[in-house]
Specification:
Blueprint: H1 9-21, E1 27-33, E2 38-41, H2 43-48, H3 60-65, H4 72-83, E3 89-95, E4 101-112, E5 118-127, H5 134-165, H6 169-183, H7 187-198, H8 208-218, H9 220-223
Antiparallel strand pairs: 1-2, 1-5, 3-4, 4-5
Helix pairs in contact: 1-5, 5-6, 5-7
Amino acid sequence: MATDGELSDEDAETLERVIGSGAPAGIGTFRYLFADQRWEWSPEVARMHGYEPGAVRPTTELLLSHKHPEDRDRVRALITSVEDGAPFSSSHRIIDTAGRVHHVTVLSYPLYDASGDRVGTGGYYIDLTAAVDAEQRRVIDDRLPQWVAAGAEIEQAKGALMLVYGIPGDQATRLLLWRARETGTPLRALCIRLTAELTDFARADSDLRRKFDHILLTVHERVESD
């Protein structure tokens, strides 16, 4: 396993399989914005908690009300770290509105504005209740710190695709996963190389789209040699 906050290719591939192969209802996203202390849930995260999308406005208090009693204090400390601006990872239980217990893993990454200022925290909720057995959950829990380190690298590559192609984040994620699977390249390595090659672009280049297409479709050829 990698140390000092770095993510090994093995861990990145494991995370890719969890994110890429789960059922649609098994993974969702969230954001916490510092300016107005606002939480945002994707429809999938709302359903994990037992709500229809848009039915409730998520708050810190609402999040804590759904945590398993044995996990509440630990999750409160993690939420506080998000509100203070620190990335976090957690594997814990939540109880939905019907009383069902869900085993979830939460991974976070920093959010920045166009000026490079930190404006919040975003991340993934992964519902492992049906998809992963107890031993796999233990392995995932052990590797959470390394996975968090990869979140920002993947998000940078997602942001580039969203900018160039004008697509939302979920479509950008699927596009990166497709290229990684199609070429047999670890997702983290693909994202790092893709982001690095973007620095050669001039912002006003009229051929930006064509050049980006070429990089996206050939970046896997240069991962191993770098």
